[in-house]
Design a protein that fits this description.
alpha/beta; 10-stranded mixed sheet; elongated; about 240 residues; 8 helices; single chain
Length: about 240
């Protein structure tokens, strides 16, 4: 393999490559990478081992400034939870937070996507501080750690109905492992029952944003949904709701 000793930025998209082979390929680069951007679709869940990523980066990517990672997990009949799914909360350890590389989950159609990105301002970022002066804002930015780890779940699609409930049930464990605090739903239609199912799965929610979401049924809940919703209301920690049309 040709060694590119001056290579500082590297972007790649990979399909069906095992993590061990992926790691071996990166070792052969021998480059002082400052930006690494990888999109992965693979059944090998070792990609979700945050501690292994931490060791590899600490030992072999010492110049890395920007780390962008996106791993797609297909939620189909073959989907099974593995030991590596239980490790994803490690993506919110001090190693990642100190570098301001933040963890986010996406649900897009039948995919659960695990994402790491450098810090960037989003809808969840301290809206209550927007009125303060720049010096104070800078000191807040330097003191991010007490406010984090923040884990956002973003759900994007054309429709969320009861037909999607098996998908949510399959990945409930993952929601609990990561303690999702921010929920962002952007879909054209969503049943109230489905929204309740999602909220009930996210016991650590602090903030919610609903965008382009026309609830496609009235708040006429069945007994099951009423019980679930009342339980959620009694234990929820939500302090902020944003509605956008």
């Amino acid at each position: 393999m040709i060694k590119l000793h001056s290579l500082t930025h590297f972007t790649m998209t990979l399909y069906n490559l095992e993590f061990n082979d992926f790691e071996e390929f990166l070792l052969k680069l021998c480059s002082p990478l400052q930006l690494f951007d990888a999109k992965i679709k693979s059944r090998d869940r070792i990609y979700l081992n945050a501690d292994r990523w931490e060791r590899f980066i600490s030992q072999n990517m010492t110049s890395l400034i920007r780390f962008i990672f996106r791993y797609s997990d297909i939620i189909d009949d073959e989907f099974e939870l593995t030991f590596y799914h239980s490790l994803i909360n490690r993506f919110t350890s001090s190693f990642w937070i100190d570098r301001k590389w933040f963890f986010k989950l996406f649900i897009e159609e039948d995919e659960l996507i695990y994402s790491i990105r450098p810090y960037q301002e989003t809808w969840i970022d301290f809206q209550e501080y927007l009125h303060i002066n720049q010096d104070t804002k800078n000191s807040i930015n330097d003191f991010l750690n007490p406010y984090f780890p923040v884990v956002e779940l973003s759900i994007v699609g054309s429709c969320l109905t009861e037909n999607d409930e098996p998908l949510i049930n399959k990945i409930n464990f993952i929601f609990n492992m990561t303690k999702v605090t921010y929920l962002d739903i952007e879909c054209d239609q969503m049943t109230v029952s489905m929204l309740i199912t999602i909220l009930h799965s996210l016991i650590n929610l602090n903030s919610i944003r609903l965008s382009n979401s026309a609830l496609c049924q009235q708040m006429d809940l069945c007994i099951r949904d009423k019980i679930i919703f009342n339980a959620f209301l009694n234990m929820n920690k939500i302090s902020k709701i944003t509605l956008q049309t």
